[in-house]
Amino acid sequence: MVISQFLASGGLWLNLDGTEILVDPGPGSIVQSTKRKLKADKLSAIIVSHRHLDHSADVNIMVEAMTQGGFKRHGRLFAPADSLGTEPVIFSYLKNFLAGVEVLQEGKSYSIDDISFTTPVRHIHPVETYGMVFTTPKHTFSYIADTRYFDALCQHYRGELLIINMVFLEPRVPSDENMRLPTDHLSVPDAEHIIRELKPKVAILSHFGMSVWRAKPWQIAEKLSQDTGVMVLAARDGMKFDLAQLDNS
Ligand SMILES: [Zn+2]
Prior knowledge:
Elements: E1 12-16, E2 19-23, H1 29-35, E3 43-47, H2 53-56, H3 59-66, E4 76-80, H4 81-84, H5 92-95, E5 100-104, E6 108-112, E7 115-119, E8 132-135, E9 140-144, H6 153-156, E10 161-168, E11 186-187, H7 188-198, E12 202-206, H8 210-214, H9 217-228, E13 231-234
Parallel strand pairs: 2-3, 3-4, 4-5, 9-10, 10-11, 10-12, 12-13
Antiparallel strand pairs: 1-2, 6-7, 7-8, 8-9
Helix pairs in contact: 7-9
Bound molecules: zinc ion (ZN).
């Protein structure tokens, strides 16, 4: 999907009571955000869940944009240790433009202005990966980034809103013919199970692979809504979700 750009891969742009945070700036983040009049220099932080290209490819240009080419030195980058180690996702000269670089670790919590977030559990994925649980003065919401299914997901990601990266239509096991392909991703049945266990007010499905795309994600979301009783939405390019909607549901 990323290679074809049938769906955009620029990441999630959070605006939490005026604190703006970019999560997972994949390929096209600079194009998609400028097209939507989102101002990178307003960002307080960029968070990379893991180093795979579809989550980090535009991190350098977004740091450049956040800091106006280094003239407005501010903002922090959060990423797992293996995104910053021997083959870092961020160029060293750009690191100097930032107010800080913070290493994401299992079970830790971080704050950005009056927003806090935790990275409760390391995911099962080929590289070091974390999801996040965000707490604002008014709301709590969770983001389950790329991972194979494991039971602890259903304990750690409680919140009023749950965003799930759901790549596959059907679960894939490593013994599949797809063994050589990346199989450490959630499927529709995994997402259904997690939504039933966590019972958020609203769930948003995102990060669709081709199998989900062909099956029409909005129809999958509709079916999951009926089956689970939770309002399930399929993400679209440029989709906005106002957290105030959670107060009425
Ligand atoms: Zn990945």
